[in-house]
Amino acid sequence: MANVISLFNQAGGTGKTTLAMNLGYSLTQQGHKVLLLDMDPQSSLTVFMGLQPHELEETIAQSILDRAPLPVLSDIHQMDLVPSNLTLSAADVRLATAIAKETRLKKALSPIEQNYDFVLIDCPPTLGVLSILSLVASTHVLIPLQTQYKSFVGLDLLLGTVSELQQEGVAPDLKIAGVIPNLHDRTAQSKEILEAVTEQFSGVAPVFPAIPRAIAFADASMQHLPLGLYDPKHPALAVLTTISQSLESL
To answer: What are phi and psi of 121, to 5 degrees?
Structure first.
């Protein structure tokens, strides 16, 4: 069965969408079959992969809201994609009274999960129903964290959410795959936050090597390409390779 990994942080601006695409591509370069799943109504991952969300008739929304099969778009930069668009924003209202709504995504993934080694879910930057659906469907949660104070202080809330899902039996087997310090720069604050995160997670979960802030990531996204295709010699790719190789041991 696949490792189903939610990239989740309720704080915005952590670079999780860019990380999902680039980490997925890095895993394909190690020979893995990867599915990207866009669970954010803003559809940034869908756009980064070169699609126009408003033109899509079938998205993850139909699977979540109407129990339709997952619409998998095959072989985009060697990855498969389940796209999203603004239709997904109706989930909070449409699922308000639904029975067992937390398992909607898990059940939708079940028929195709065995086709992949890794499923990477790009969660919205909120602690709403779409993030809960994503975490319940996942075997692991991966936490992108900008090495800034605002991101660091939100960690307790995030960890509390994961703990509650485990203890309440909603996602009892959910594990923390680790923390990825992202958008890291050379300021004193970034260095202090990285040290604090490493200390806080000691014995709890891995803290992966920091991914440097680099304009090349944004440039690649604008071209709808993973960094590995946009600039195959960029030094940040070595960090992504290290992280993706670590995920193989989950």
So the answer is: -105, 120
Distance CA 145, CA 207 (A): 10
As a whole number, mean pLDDT of residues 83-100 equals 92
Give CATH for domain 7-244. 3.40.50.300
Write the pLDDT tens digit of every residue in 26-63. 999 999 999 999 999 999 999 999 999 999 999 999 99
How far apart CA 70 and CA 110 sit, in angstroms, is 10
- Cα atoms in the 13 Å half-sphere on the side-chain side of 91: 28
Which residue, chain included where needed, has tokens 């999902």? Answer: 20
Provide the whole-model pTM.
Answer: 0.96
What's the longest Cα–Cα distance across the chain?
A: 51
| SS3 state of residue 18 | helix
> What are the residue boundaries of the structural domains of the chain, listed by start?
7-244
| Rounded Cα gap, residues 173 and 7, in angstroms | 17
Question: How much is the pLDDT for 31?
Answer: 98
Q: What are the distances in angstroms from CA 87 to CA 58, 63, 135?
A: 10, 11, 20
- DSSP 8-state code for residue 212: B
Of 45-54, 59-68, 203-212, where does mean pLDDT reach its minimum? Answer: 203-212
